[in-house]
Amino acid sequence: MSKIKVAFICVHNSCRSQIAEAFGRHLASDVFQSYSAGTETKPQINQDAVRIMKELYNIDMEAEGQFSKLVSDIPDPDIAISMGCNVGCPFIGRPFDDNWGLEDPTGKSDEEFNIVIEQIKHDILKLKSRLNHNEI
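Request: output the structure for the sequence above.
Response:
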């Protein structure tokens, strides 16, 4: 049986969803496959997110092949999670299974990035646990 496919979605697929994909790959790849995407793309992943993930967790998202992608560029997910819809939720052709409601730290301080990164890590581990216990 193949692993559950989880997609982390935000509008530009450049920051929060990329962090979630990276943590999913590093902390939960034994339980689910992680993808991230958006309804628009950016030329590169948020460079503050790349730098801070390297500093805190030695995870180099760009070196591991992550890049900004459209929803149509990833496999159909079994679970779709919105990272937070401050301005508007992206439409992905189906309802979201969850909305993590995270503020976008783009353009903010490293401290604000750290708060969002730690929340995403916590949410990934919680999702992994819930899937392991068949709670989803």
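The first helix runs from residue 16 to 27.
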